[in-house]
Write a structure and sequence with these properties.
globular; ABC transporter involved in vitamin B12 uptake, BtuC; mainly alpha
Length: about 325
């Protein structure tokens, strides 16, 4: 592009990980973290939920609707109820593909992907129609009562309680359930072989539905916190157009080896790239879309590493057998 790459990466770093920008990177990483941990749950069972983007939007829309309906309720009561409903909205949106997969064997990649479009166009209809802001007339809801916004956890920043919930509570809980509980073991058994899961007397139908509900709940929760903590209203641009949270979360989950601790680091890193791309665009005149190219290259390199590692490990095992 005729630009100095060192200067470009300097501004990318400054916009992502400098002391003045790091709080925004945590904010950007939070929806990625919640979505990707939910995806890690189903991916461990070799169930491919590609519908996190739609579940994210449904959670955000439910949050805005409940925020409008509960605007006169006391915040200590309304806030947790709204957050719970956001998660339930995402879980319900994942339920039908889950049932189709678990009970009828219908490919969940297709159903969850199609449900993304249904969700986004349903939200678009609601924002252009029944829930359009009557004052601005833009395709967005009215601003939620400030009393219901997610409380700020670190003064002087936009780090809200949802950020702390994701990094301090969800990550260790997810690690425990996936690595140290019978539920995580069942997911691993199902992922390794459905036949072995049957021999182990695991109810695969219930397990698939449970995993999909957890995944949808966390995606919906991410949408809820994005509305309550950052946007304060529902709009069609809830997810970045260059790096949609629902699809980027798939890459984050895979790059983190489906390990919640590694996923937290990967979410922070990719969230930083998304944030830093805006500073890079402003200071070095490089298009924001370059962040998507950088993410794609990172994914290609790491997946290539997986492939090489797998081939080398097979060769070592063959030599040991000899």
């Amino acid at each position: 592009m005729g630009k100095d790459p060192l200067q470009a990466y300097y501004w990318l770093f400054q916009g992502a990980f400098s002391p003045s920008a790091i709080s925004e990177t945590f904010v950007r990483a939070t929806p990625l973290l919640l979505i990707s941990i939910g995806l890690a749950v189903v991916f461990r069972a070799k169930v491919w939920n590609i519908g996190a983007e739609g579940q994210f939007y449904i959670g955000g829309m439910m949050t805005a609707i409940m925020g409008i309906m509960f605007k006169d309720l006391p915040a200590p009561l309304a806030f947790p109820v709204i957050v719970l409903i956001a998660g339930l909205g995402g879980a319900i949106w994942a339920l039908i593909p889950a049932i189709l997969k678990a009970s009828y064997g219908i490919n969940e990649v297709i159903t969850t992907l199609m449900f993304n479009y249904v969700a986004i166009y349903l939200v678009s209809y609601l924002l252009h129609g029944p829930f359009r802001d009557p004052i601005s007339m833009f395709p967005e809801t009215e601003t939620i009562n400030p009393a219901l916004w997610a409380p700020i956890a670190v003064q002087g920043t936009r780090i809200h309680v949802g950020v702390l919930l994701a990094f301090v509570i969800v990550v260790p809980l997810a690690y425990f359930f996936l690595k140290r509980s019978a539920f995580g073991l069942k997911l691993d058994i199902l992922g390794s072989s459905p036949r072995v899961a049957e021999y182990a007397n695991i109810n695969t139908t219930h397990l698939i539905i449970q995993a999909m509900l957890i995944s949808g709940f966390l995606a919906g929760l991410a949408g809820g916190f994005e509305v309550l903590g950052i946007q304060h209203k529902m709009r069609l641009e809830l997810s970045p157009t260059t790096s949609p949270y629902g699809y980027t979360g798939i890459a984050v989950a895979l790059l983190g080896y489906l390990n919640p601790l590694l996923i937290a680091l990967t979410s922070f890193f990719l969230g930083g790239i998304i944030n830093g791309s805006m500073t890079m665009h402003r200071m070095a005149q490089i298009p924001v879309g370059m962040a998507g190219i950088i993410q794609a290259l990172i994914i290609i390199f790491i997946l290539t590493g997986y492939f090489v590692e797998d081939k080398l490990s097979k060769k070592v095992m063959e030599r040991l057998k000899l």
